[in-house]
């Protein structure tokens, strides 16, 4: 019979896969795969819950016991356990495939593991059932014998798994996948890693106990013992690893992974539920952390935002407490069903809500969402309160959320116990219903306050995550820029200019600058070129953007849009080489006041690697020119404003830069020094270099410059030669008119030259 | 009056960052954290008093006012020192004097505004220490029925007024003190000499103290016969000798009634008026004597002294990497403040270790006690070292605008920035080495254990140095430093200090736990030291990685 079902499943699945792939009508019907998945889910539910595993969970300890209770040999029992394990992973992978379509790495499981899983399940289906349902009462007339149902459903599933695997192989071969995609070691390793992770996530909680029995030695996972600490460390390592592993992956992969993990956890958690336990509501998983096992997958699958924040604010804190003070039998064996299930449950309840938000499946909550989550909490609280009271009245031992006993009160001492003992009772229908109103009200309010406190902790955590994400994105961009630079250089050295034919030029191409997240541009779309031998004056009112442009050229601040080229070097991509070409005099002198003038200039000369003979000659020339002979070896803090400005100018010229940039350079200088600076500028340009300076002194600009640029409110108004300007009057008149008027129409020649 | 108000508000806005007021979320966070800080300190003081009076029985509950007198006197002395130092800087050496001196106002108004701003600032500071401590004492008294509940409300008025006392005393002392500061600024050699003398005196004093310590102290037998009466006599003697502070405490808590309860009375009110009178008189004295010379003194700091002609030096060529290092060494060693900071931390830590271990070596301890001594050693070595890294959290910003110029130079900035940290990195190395050696003189550990402990603490310190440096890189304060020449309420410094406390406490606690566990497993001790070392290395690697990555990603944007 099982073979008939197996081949029926195989044939049916192959037919459906083929038809949905080739038949246009079925192909366009987007729910076809969903219907198949729905059927698979129903069949799995029947298979999974038709067996009452409670006896096995309590009695199967190791393969020898499994063998003794099931009648199969130890070797067969081992294969049966593996088959059972794989059947759960296979089910989740298959259903996920039907919803998500093909995924690169999880397909490895479908192609390489699924056939193996399918055959194992088919061969050992009876033995699996014998182990899981080894209750001696079964067959005695006291219990339902699920063997037929289990065998038929799993056989059918096995057929579908094999069909899915075979069809995937067929498609890949037919579509020439292996011709176009070379399999490399990285793909094999990642696929193997993903397969192992999938298997870990879907590990049935009873598997370790059934297969390996009990560990020898005193391993216990409570009271902060070393073993317990490892479990607690894992509480942080698991979500962090998940976050780091998934943060760069596409949205589809993140969603697939989270749903896979949460659904697998839900299934493994539900192992001890069966048709027998369902009718009794008191056995249902209403404990706070238990609810997370169902709420998380539901919220992820249906993107149910409002319910999600219930688990986000309430479950996480409960899970932390539970993990720090695990509530299972003392000296419980480390790999026993109860311990494994406890940790699976609470790790999931702890990290899923956090990881879901960190990976942006749900947004960071606002006060409204917090309020909604507390409303859900209220509903939950009222429900468990009444269930507790109702079942206790019926003589059943229930303590959902630990509000029906003094379990938590005990941890706080006598005063909490006194509060707990303030109880109120009433009788109805022969039953006595008992509440602990004060204790239960304080419990509820405390949890809300803790939820509120958690909000602040989350904010801290997520702001760290945000910062980390931003850092990661920036580093990635830097890596990509470097690759682009190497590509742009076409095999030339990184010390070669991007544009080798540029010569001595300074070129701005559609340069724009915004500060931080400000939407407003401080400088917008500025383009011009300055050539060797030119003195270029930059005019504009205060705050127009002159210093912003200069600071971007010299590298003090990054470029938002466009590019700047210095002698062919790209400022953003080749910052070191472009800065080598520049000497910069800032608008405010910025010196190390405890160094002497000579020490400072030598420090700058060292940075620019100026040879001894060159620096000796230049320093002595400029010191003499600016009359600093008596003070050059004194500490800078003893200098006047003008002397400091002179040191700044000398240090900008000590390496004889191809481009000398000065931002308001003449402020505070005496007339003789002003004259000498102007002479220096003329001489520097005459040597074929560029002198680029901004100033408010129109007279100076008029006498010195070959060309002039005027900027207003971040927009370049014009770039013109002095002759062009003076055709219509003085520079002062032209400047005043330009600043008052809107953007001028540039003459053809100016545009061409710029 | 309007001018004074405007001047005070202007200076307050400059000194206190109120940007959080505009952001509701930030405002709530700030309020919550401030209240939390206040509550935590209060609870800690309350717990300390409780432990000392109930558990250790160092003093009885009715002696709490005497302990309060002792604490208040100690705090007053510290406050006077801090206020004098602060006022010397704010009054006579602040960069904003250059602007204030040009305003069309009398010297009295400028003087008064500076004093008021300092007083407000002192009140804010007191909320983080003095006030919660006083409230902690009050709670201790309240819980033993020595104080009525309304004392918690009434105490605030005298407390706020009392805060002015160290300020006016400091203002008075700041006049002669600024001459001393000027003298040491002018003749640096005297400053260094004085420091060396003080340091030598401390070392000699501590070593002498260690030598006179008797062998085999039996604390338990001495406790009842000698120690407790000595504490009792000390508190009584202190209260009678420092009667003024006893009266201030009575102003805070009221007079003792026959029932043993402290309550406010007419005498309290008279004492309160007397305190106000003393503060007002001191203020009048300061105002009258100082305001006339205030402008003259503060102007002096603008006038640069003509330096004698320095003999011409030669230009020396270095590689850029060496040049960065030489520059940092020059900047560090030409600043007496930095040198003092280095020396005080790096020399005092080994001395403290010496003293503490001598004391512990005289006591007979169990294995648990030995582990506690070990943890205390770890704490005493790491806490001052980590806390001294607060200066690292301002090191790049303290370059002012000169730091921007670094961005214009054709170099990878990681090394120039790291060179700035090198003096601290090297200094820490020697400090930890000497401290561990002193500790080992008493503990007699094997070379392997000493090496592992050394690496663990050193790398922890390096990790914290890079963490503090990263704080400054990510939230630079160059503009504030360039404008005012100092950094007020620098959040980076605060975070660095708080993290120093947390990190050193955690490291000490972890070392206690690891050592405690080591006795249960064979080879456990080696494993415990290896884990301590590994922890230090992990913290260092993580901090250095974040430091270098953040330089790469953000340095040019900040």
Compute the number of strand runs of chain A. Answer: 12
Beta-strand fraction estimate of chain B: under 5%
Q: What do we call the CATH homologous superfamily of one domain in chain A?
A: P-loop containing nucleotide triphosphate hydrolases
| Residue-averaged pLDDT of chain B | 83
Count the domains of chain B: 2
- Report the principal-axis shape of chain B: globular
What is the level-2 CATH architecture name of one domain in chain A? 3-Layer(aba) Sandwich
Unreliable residue runs of chain B = none
Name the average pLDDT of chain A: 87
Gap between N and C termini of chain B: 41 Å
Please state the structural category of chain A. Answer: alpha/beta
Number of helices of chain A: 30
Identify the strand order in the major beta sheet of chain A: 8-9-10-5-11-12
- Overall number of strands of chain B: 2
Oligomer: heterodimer
Low-confidence region ranges of chain A: 746-754
- What is the CATH level 1 assignment of one domain in chain A? Alpha Beta
Largest sheet of chain B, described in full? Answer: 2 strands, antiparallel
């Amino acid at each position: 019979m099982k073979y008939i079902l197996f081949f029926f499943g195989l044939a049916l699945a192959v037919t459906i896969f083929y038809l949905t792939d080739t038949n246009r009508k079925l192909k366009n019907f987007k729910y076809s795969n969903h219907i198949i998945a729905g059927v698979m889910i129903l069949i799995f539910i029947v298979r999974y819950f038709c067996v009452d595993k409670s006896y096995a969970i309590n009695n199967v300890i190791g393969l020898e016991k499994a063998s003794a209770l099931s009648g199969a040999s130890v070797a067969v029992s081992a294969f049966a356990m593996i088959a059972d394990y794989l059947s759960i992973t296979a089910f989740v992978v298959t259903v996920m495939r039907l919803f998500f379509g093909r995924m690169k790495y999880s397909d490895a499981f479908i192609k390489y593991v699924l056939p193996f899983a399918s055959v194992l399940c088919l061969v050992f289906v009876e033995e699996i059932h014998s182990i899981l349902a080894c209750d001696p009462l079964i067959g005695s007339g006291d219990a339902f014998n699920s063997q037929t149902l289990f065998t038929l459903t799993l056989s059918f599933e096995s057929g579908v798994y094999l069909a899915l695997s075979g069809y995937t192989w067929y498609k890949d071969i037919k579509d020439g996948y292996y011709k176009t995609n070379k399999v490399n070691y990285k793909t094999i390793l990642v696929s193997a890693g993903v397969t192992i992770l999938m298997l870990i996530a879907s590990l049935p909680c009873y598997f370790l106990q059934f297969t390996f029995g009990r560990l020898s030695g005193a391993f216990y996972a409570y009271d902060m013992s070393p073993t317990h600490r490892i479990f607690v460390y894992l509480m942080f390592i698991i979500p962090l690893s998940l976050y780091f592993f998934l943060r760069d992956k596409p949205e589809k992969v993140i969603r697939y992974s989270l749903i896979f993990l949460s659904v697998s956890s839900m299934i493994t958690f539900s192992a001890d539920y069966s048709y027998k336990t369902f009718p009794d509501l008191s056995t249902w998983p209403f404990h706070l952390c238990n609810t997370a096992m169902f709420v998380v997958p539901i919220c992820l699958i249906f993107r149910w935002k409002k319910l999600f924040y219930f688990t986000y604010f309430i479950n996480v804190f409960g899970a932390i407490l539970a993990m720090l003070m695990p509530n299972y039998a003392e000296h419980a064996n480390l790999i026993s069903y109860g311990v494994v299930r406890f940790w699976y449950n609470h790790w999931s309840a702890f990290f899923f809500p956090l990881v879901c938000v960190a990976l942006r499946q749900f947004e960071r909550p606002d006060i409204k969402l917090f309020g909604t989550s507390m409303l859900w909490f209220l509903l939950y609280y009222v429900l468990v309160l009444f269930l507790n009271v109702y079942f206790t009245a019926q003589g059943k031992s229930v303590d959902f959320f630990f509000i029906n006993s003094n379990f938590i009160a005990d941890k706080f001492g006598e005063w909490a116990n006194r509060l707990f003992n303030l109880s109120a009772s009433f009788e109805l229908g022969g039953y006595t219903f008992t509440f602990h109103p004060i204790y239960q009200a304080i419990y509820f309010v405390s949890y809300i306050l803790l939820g509120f406190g958690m909000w602040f902790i989350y904010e801290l955590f997520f702001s760290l995550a945000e910062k980390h994400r931003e850092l990661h994105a920036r580093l990635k961009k830097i890596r990509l820029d470097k690759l682009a630079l190497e590509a742009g250089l076409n095999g030339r050295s990184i010390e070669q200019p991007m544009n080798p034919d540029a010569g001595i030029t300074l070129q701005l191409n559609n340069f724009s600058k915004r500060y931080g997240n400000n939407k407003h541009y401080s400088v917008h779309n500025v383009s011009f070129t300055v050539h060797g031998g030119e003195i270029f004056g930059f005019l504009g009112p205060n705050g127009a953007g002159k210093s912003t442009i200069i600071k971007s050229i010299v590298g003090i601040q990054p470029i938002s849009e466009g590019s700047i080229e210095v002698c062919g070097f790209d400022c953003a991509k080749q910052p070191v080489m472009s800065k080598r070409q520049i000497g910069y005099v800032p608008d405010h002198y910025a010196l190390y006041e405890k160094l002497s003038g000579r020490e400072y200039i030598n420090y700058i000369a060292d940075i620019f690697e100026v040879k001894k003979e060159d620096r000796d000659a230049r320093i002595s020339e400029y010191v003499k020119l600016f009359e600093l002979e008596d003070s050059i070896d004194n500490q800078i803090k003893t200098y006047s404003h003008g002397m400091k400005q002179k040191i700044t100018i000398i240090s900008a010229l000590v390496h004889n830069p191809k481009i000398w940039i000065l931002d308001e350079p003449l402020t505070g200088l005496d007339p003789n020094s002003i004259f000498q600076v102007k002479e220096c500028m003329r001489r520097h340009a005459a040597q074929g270099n560029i002198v680029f300076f901004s100033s408010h002194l129109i007279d100076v600009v008029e006498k010195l410059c070959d060309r002039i640029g005027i900027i207003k409110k971040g927009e370049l108004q014009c770039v013109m030669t002095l002759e062009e300007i003076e055709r219509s009057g003085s520079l002062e008149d032209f400047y005043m008119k330009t600043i008052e008027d809107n953007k001028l129409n540039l003459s053809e020649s100016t545009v061409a030259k710029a | 009056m309007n001018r004074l108000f405007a001047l005070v508000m202007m200076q307050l806005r400059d000194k206190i960052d109120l940007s959080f007021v505009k952001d509701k979320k930030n405002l709530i966070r700030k309020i919550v954290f401030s209240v939390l800080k206040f509550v935590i300190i209060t609870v800690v003081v309350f717990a300390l008093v409780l432990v000392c009076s109930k558990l250790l029985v160092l003093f009885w509950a009715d002696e709490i006012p005497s302990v309060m007198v002792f604490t208040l006197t100690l705090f007053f002395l510290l406050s006077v020192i801090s206020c004098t130092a602060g006022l010397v800087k704010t009054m006579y050496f602040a960069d904003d004097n250059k602007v204030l001196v040009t305003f069309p106002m009398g010297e009295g108004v400028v003087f008064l505004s500076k004093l008021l701003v300092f007083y407000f600032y002192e009140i804010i500071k007191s909320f983080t220490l003095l006030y919660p401590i006083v409230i902690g004492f009050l709670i201790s008294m309240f819980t033993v029925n020595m104080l009525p509940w309304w004392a918690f409300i009434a105490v605030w008025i005298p407390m706020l007024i009392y805060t002015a006392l160290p300020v006016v005393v400091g203002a008075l002392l700041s006049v002669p003190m600024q001459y001393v500061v000027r003298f040491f600024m002018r003749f640096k050699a005297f400053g260094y000499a004085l420091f060396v003398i003080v340091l030598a005196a401390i070392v000699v004093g501590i070593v002498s103290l260690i030598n006179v310590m008797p062998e085999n102290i039996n604390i338990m037998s001495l406790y009842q016969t000698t120690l407790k009466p000595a504490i009792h006599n000390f508190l009584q003697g202190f209260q009678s000798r420092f009667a003024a502070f006893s009266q201030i405490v009575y102003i805070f808590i009221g007079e003792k009634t026959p029932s043993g309860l402290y309550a406010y009375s007419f005498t309290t009110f008279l004492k309160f008026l007397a305190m106000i009178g003393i503060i007002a008189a001191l203020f009048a004295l300061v105002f009258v004597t100082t305001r006339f010379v205030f402008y003259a003194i503060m102007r002096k700091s603008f006038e640069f002294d003509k330096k004698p002609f320095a003999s011409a030096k030669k230009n020396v060529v270095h590689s850029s990497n060496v040049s960065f290092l030489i520059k940092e060494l020059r900047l560090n060693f030409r600043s007496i403040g930095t040198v003092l900071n280095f020396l005080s931390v790096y020399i005092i830590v080994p001395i403290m270790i010496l003293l503490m271990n001598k004391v512990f070596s005289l006591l007979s301890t169990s294995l648990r006690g030995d582990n506690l001594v070990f943890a205390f050693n770890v704490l005493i070595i790491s806490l001052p070292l980590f806390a001294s890294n607060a200066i690292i959290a301002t090191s790049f910003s303290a370059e002012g605008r000169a730091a921007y110029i670094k961005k214009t130079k054709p170099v990878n900035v990681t090394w120039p920035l790291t060179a700035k940290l090198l003096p601290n990195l090297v200094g820490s190395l020697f400090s930890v080495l000497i401290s561990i050696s002193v500790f080992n003189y008493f503990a007699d550990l094997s070379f392997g254990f000493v090496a592992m402990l050394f690496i663990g603490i050193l790398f922890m310190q390096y990790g914290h140095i890079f963490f503090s440096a990263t704080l400054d890189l990510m939230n630079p304060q160059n503009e504030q430093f360039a404008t005012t020449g100092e950094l007020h309420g620098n959040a980076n410094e605060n975070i660095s200090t708080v993290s120093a406390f947390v990190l050193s406490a955690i490291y000490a606690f972890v070392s206690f736990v690891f050592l405690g566990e080591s006795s249960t497993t064979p080879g456990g001790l080696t494993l415990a030291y290896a884990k301590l070392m590994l922890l230090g290395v992990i913290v260092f690697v993580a901090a250095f990685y974040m430091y270098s990555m953040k330089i790469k990603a953000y340095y040019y944007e900040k």
